[in-house]
Structure formats: structure tokens, C-alpha cells
Design a protein that fits this description.
The protein is about 35% helix and about 15% strand. It is of the alpha/beta class.
């Protein structure tokens, strides 16, 4: 390479106080110029993504691109194309030989764009400089429609979290309506849902063999319109039109969708939409260790593309010095989308693959010796699964932890302990932290094996003493056992036990660490009084809450179906959910009982609930004003006769 060519192909990327010179040829090409320098006349696949291009295994477009590249395909990536001009970004690389891939990015675009109150966010963590407005609402729909209009004969395959969770008729919180499969609105030929490596390779192989995409009907983890008809053993869902007329049918559909998605060997799902069948093939079985290693071991640069000239990409900064240990989650939380996308069965990397990536991180020019996370969807599910897989193969339960851990579940944390300790022995690693959420109930649940209980106790000690970066994040989510039951989360009493252990170990080892709990307001079955009691309980535990959020309905979760239909899909029970802005704000305010500007309103709300006992617990013997205008001192509400309670309103 001559000096002129070298100057054009390298960029200086800032990383902390260090700099790295990266050759653009180390990345998948993003422009015609980069493609030309590789000597390509035509790419085989062009991927369009709503995120900035970061060549890292936590970014979906990079993973799919690298997987295809390893098999010899020529792959280009177009990050955040401009959809508002003359569409030059959609034309600049021409026609791919095989197909276009489309993804909204690592987040559903509507969660990325809007708050739980549907207010527009002012930044985007997956964009250089955190700049807002670099992707449209519903990029899967927008990008796919543009591509089908420009290149009607080229297959468009939609993937990523947005398409994955909208593969069937779904409630859309931001439009506040039931919408059909995203296939209907996007014009895409096919959806590749879930983790896409195996699916995309099989599709590329068949398209490379000159098979028309309309004739590809049996690849797992795909959804598409078809002229085929259901077989006897398949599951036929209520049609989109039937669900529009009857919410109970939408609730019934969800139970089938969730159960089949969480089976080891699910059945084909069918749904009629606009008089046409959508066919949804079941998930692949969980990845074997060698398969998931092969994906993580690809030659990622672990850096943003040089096109961004060192601009900060917030989502990348969070994970640049982290390592993902596994995929999948068997928690089955009602508000979470992980199992619908990744499945409930855990696919764990080998120790060798993990240590190899850690060593790669230690060689990054800005690495100072601290790994920000050794984690996964739930940090401590690494290496876990059923003791008897034959039982797992028959199981239809969406959670292995709720209402209590399955007796067939292996909860042994010894493999994870070994990973932590082996990582810390690597030259250049001063400390490894756990930034992902920890399921403390998984480690604390007493098994029938004493040696496992001993190991799990040792794991909790190792975690708290050696792997907390000042703050440990955990997610009790609520304090009410009734609300937690709806959430598919354990009793809050278990969190109290964990906090006691955390405090004891901190005191014993002279540590000054914080426990940071996550809580949710306005979740289905949560009433305002539940939030008031949450405020009292968190005050008692000396928490001033920071990590809180209103429940945001996202497609394909149990909580969203309850929110939309008002019905629990598994019990048929009618469930209350706060929906209006006033109801939500009334619940949310109790998180911040300690703020001066919230005190007056909270006291008034508690008076209306006839709960002066909670006012006393939150604010002591403060004075408040009765209807007569006289100030009265609070007393324990149990001593107030019912006939006199109204005097205190």
C-alpha cells in the first residue's frame, strides 16, 4: 500500500486518552469507495441498520456481517441511511447479488425515540455524538419499503429486535392500536427473528443456490406470507381481524406464542392477516458451545467505524471493555423481551473463547486494567440449564424461576466462579466487574445438593467482595408480592435477605459499596397504594431511588398483553393497569417521596387513600390541614375509628 492509499484508508480514533490507527479495510465496507478498494464489482449482501456501525459482537449488524463474511460472502453495511433526501444512501452500493438485510438496530426504534409518556427523547445512544434524528420511527418499515420500491426483484430480509418482536399481530403502545405482523406494513419478503446467525447463513446458502425466496418455506426462525396451508400438528392463531374485534382472542394468541417460543422444539404458528397466511417457523434448538464460540471468535475490531472520526457513541462506551458470556434467559419476567428474542435456554461460550476475548480487550490502547462487565442477559446464568434435558424438551413453562426455581434446574455457579477467577489472573486485568443484572434469587435458592449451596454462597461472596464497581445493580422491581407475582418475580423478602448479606460482607471487608435496586411503576396489577407502600419500604431500607422507570409496553411481552387486553392470558383474570398520564404520574411520584417538591402532593394522595399511617411512616409526625382549615397532628391510622377518618381527608 503506498502512502497516499494508506492515508485514505486509515483514521485516527480517540479512545480515552489513547489513540488507535485503524485501516478501513479491517471493517466491512460502508461506501462505494471502500468497496472499490477491496476490488469488488458487486456485494453479495447489503445490510441496512438504524444504528451506527460498531464492529463489536454486541452490535447485530456487525455480527451478521462477520458471520456471512466468514462463509465467503461479500458484505457491505449502510449505517443510518438518510431516508429524507433523494435516497442516495439506498442507491450508492447498487444491487446486491443475493439480498438486502434490514434492521432497526439493537433497540426497538420506538423505545429508542420515546419515553414511557410518549415524549420525544433528545438523544440516541446508538448514534455518533448521541445525536437524535438519525433514524426514522419504525426503520424496519421505512427502509424495507424504500428498498422494495427501488429494487422490487431483490429479496429484503428483516431482522433485529424490532422485526423479531413484531412478527405476529401485536399491540403498539406508541400508536395505541393493534397492528398486524410487520410483514404487512414493511413489504419485506421475510423476517429472520431471534438471534440470526444460523438463519441468515441458511438463507444465504439457498439464495446462492438460485432458490427463489418465495420457495423457502422451512427455515427455522423465519416468518413470511405464504400460499401454503396449515398442517394438523401446527398451531393456528386467531386472525388479526378477529383480534381487532375481540381482545380476549389476542390474549389467547399470546399464550400460544410465548409457550411455543420457549419450547426446546416448538410448533409452526399460523395467523391470517388480510386474507393471507403468515407462517412462523419455530426457533432453532439452543446453540451448542462450538457454534456460539464461532460467532464471538470472529475478527471484530471492537471499534466504531473510522467514518465517525472518534465521535463518542454512548452505547459503545458502555460495553467497549465488557465481555458477554452467554445468551438466553430463563427468568421469563412478564415485562421482558429477552426470551421472545433469544429464547429461555442458555447458550454459553467456552472458557477458552471468553479468555481469548478478554485478552483481546487487554490489548486495546485505552484499556486501563478494568473490565466493565463479565455478563449476559442475566449475569449469573452462565453454564446453567436442565439436569435432565428430556424434561426440558417437554416443558412449556415460560420461566424456570417462577413461581419458584424448577427442581430440574441446575443452579450450580461453580463454572461462573471459575470464569471470574481465571479472568482476574490474566495479565493486564486489574479488576473485572459485573455490570449486568444479577438474579440473586437464583444464587440464594436452597437446592437439594449441599455442595451446590456451598458453591453458590461462595459465588455471592466473590461477587460482592471482588466484582462490584462501587455499585451493584439488582432488580427486585417492586415490593408488593401481588405485583411481583404478576411480574413473575420473587418475593421482596428475598431482596431483604440479599441486602442483609450485601451489608454484612461490606462491613466485614471494610467496603463502602452501594446496592442499586431497579423498580418499575404502573406495571399491570400495580395500584397507587402499592407504590405508596413501596415508598415506605424503600425508606425503611434507606434507599433514595435512582434506577426507576414507568412500565413501557413493548411488543410480545406478557405485561403488554395484559395492558392492552385487560386480561391475563394464562388465567383469564381481569387485571387493572394504570394507563392515563395522571394515573402513571401518581404512581411514579412515590419513587421520589424524599424530594421537597413531591411531599405535599404525596401527603394529599395518601389522605385520599385513608392511609395516614403511611404519611406517618414517610414523614413522621408532620402537621397537615383538615377541611376545616385546622392543623391536626398525625396519629397511627389503626387508632382512627372508621367514622372519623373523613375528618382527616
Amino acid at each position: 500500500m503506498n502512502k497516499s492509499e494508506n492515508k485514505q484508508n486509515t483514521s485516527t480514533i480517540k479512545g480515552g486518552s489513547s489513540y488507535a490507527i485503524l485501516d478501513r479495510k479491517l471493517f466491512l465496507p460502508t461506501s462505494k469507495e471502500e468497496m472499490d478498494k477491496l476490488g469488488w464489482d458487486q456485494p453479495d449482501v447489503i445490510l441496512f441498520t438504524g444504528d451506527a456501525y460498531v464492529d463489536h459482537p454486541s452490535f447485530g449488524a456487525a455480527v451478521i456481517g462477520r458471520v456471512l463474511q466468514k462463509e465467503g460472502y461479500k458484505v457491505c453495511i449502510v449505517p443510518q441511511p438518510n431516508w429524507r433526501d433523494d435516497l442516495r444512501d439506498f442507491k450508492k452500493l447498487g444491487r446486491p447479488r443475493l439480498f438486502f438485510g434490514v434492521s432497526a438496530g439493537a433497540m426497538d426504534s420506538m423505545v429508542n425515540h420515546y419515553t414511557a409518556n410518549r415524549r420525544l427523547r433528545h438523544d440516541d445512544a446508538y448514534t455518533a455524538g448521541g445525536k437524535h434524528g438519525m433514524r426514522p420511527d419504525y426503520p424496519t418499515i421505512v427502509y424495507s419499503n424504500i428498498l422494495k420500491k427501488l429494487y422490487p426483484d431483490i429479496p429484503v430480509i428483516a431482522g433485529g429486535i424490532e422485526a423479531s418482536l413484531r412478527r405476529v399481530a401485536h399491540y403498539d403502545y406508541w400508536a395505541d392500536q393493534l397492528r398486524p405482523s410487520i410483514l404487512s406494513e414493511s413489504g419485506a419478503d421475510m423476517i429472520s427473528y431471534g438471534m440470526g446467525e444460523r438463519t441468515i447463513l441458511e438463507l444465504a446458502k439457498r439464495l446462492n443456490d438460485k432458490i427463489n425466496i418465495r420457495d423457502i418455506q422451512d427455515v427455522p426462525q423465519t416468518a413470511f406470507f405464504t400460499d401454503e396451508t396449515p398442517k394438523k400438528e401446527d398451531v393456528i392463531l386467531y386472525s388479526f381481524e378477529e383480534c381487532m374485534l375481540d381482545k380476549s382472542k389476542q390474549a389467547s394468541n399470546f399464550r400460544h406464542i410465548e409457550e411455543e417460543s420457549n419450547k426446546m422444539y416448538g410448533r409452526v404458528l399460523w395467523q391470517s392477516t388480510g386474507g393471507k397466511w403468515v407462517k412462523i417457523n419455530p426457533m432453532y434448538p439452543p446453540m451448542e458451545k462450538g457454534e456460539i464460540d464461532a460467532s464471538f471468535d470472529l475478527p471484530y475490531t471492537r471499534m466504531p467505524h473510522p467514518r465517525y472520526k472518534g465521535k463518542n457513541i454512548p452505547a459503545y462506551e458502555m460495553i467497549r471493555h465488557s465481555v458477554n458470556l452467554h445468551r438466553g434467559c430463563f427468568g421469563g419476567c412478564a415485562f421482558c423481551t429477552i426470551s421472545a428474542h433469544q429464547g429461555k435456554f442458555i447458550s454459553s461460550r467456552s472458557k477458552e473463547s471468553i479468555l481469548k476475548e478478554v485478552e483481546k480487550v487487554t490489548q486495546m490502547p485505552d484499556f486501563k486494567g478494568y473490565l466493565s462487565d463479565l455478563g449476559g442477559p442475566s449475569a449469573n446464568m452462565y453454564g446453567m440449564g436442565g439436569k435432565d434435558l428430556a424434561i426440558c424438551a417437554r416443558c412449556v413453562k415460560p420461566s424456570c424461576l417462577h413461581p419458584k426455581p424448577c427442581p430440574n434446574l441446575n443452579t450450580d455457579h461453580s463454572q461462573l466462579l471459575d470464569i471470574y477467577r481465571s479472568v482476574d489472573e490474566i495479565k493486564g486485568v486489574k479488576k473485572s466487574f459485573i455490570g449486568s443484572g444479577v438474579r440473586y434469587d437464583l444464587a440464594m435458592f436452597p437446592s437439594k445438593n449441599k455442595s451446590v449451596d456451598v458453591v453458590n454462597k461462595e459465588y455471592l461472596k466473590e461477587l460482592i467482595v471482588n466484582h462490584v464497581s462501587g455499585r451493584l445493580k439488582v432488580a427486585p422491581e417492586h415490593t408488593s408480592d401481588r405485583v411481583l407475582q404478576c411480574m413473575r418475580k420473587p418475593s421482596f423478602s428475598l431482596f431483604r435477605n440479599f441486602k442483609d448479606l450485601f451489608d454484612q460482607l461490606n462491613q466485614s471487608y471494610g467496603l463502602n459499596q452501594q446496592l442499586i435496586p431497579y423498580f418499575i411503576s404502573s406495571h399491570p396489577d400495580c395500584h397507587e397504594e402499592d407504590m405508596a407502600e413501596l415508598a415506605v419500604e424503600t425508606k425503611r431500607l434507606n434507599f433514595h431511588l435512582e434506577q426507576v422507570q414507568d412500565f413501557t409496553p413493548t411488543p410480545l411481552t406478557l405485561a403488554t398483553e395484559i395492558y392492552y387486553t385487560g386480561i391475563h392470558p394464562y388465567t383469564g383474570e381481569k387485571i387493572y393497569t394504570a394507563k392515563s398520564e395522571k394515573e402513571k404520574l401518581n404512581q411514579r411520584q412515590f419513587f421520589f417521596w424524599y424530594k421537597d417538591d413531591a411531599k405535599s402532593k404525596i401527603i394529599n394522595e395518601l389522605k385520599m387513600m385513608h392511609r395516614p399511617d403511611l404519611i406517618h411512616k414517610l414523614y413522621g409526625n408532620n402537621l397537615f390541614t383538615s377541611k376545616s382549615g385546622k392543623e391536626k397532628r398525625l396519629i397511627n391510622h389503626k387508632s382512627i375509628p372508621n367514622t372519623k377518618k373523613k375528618a382527616y381527608e
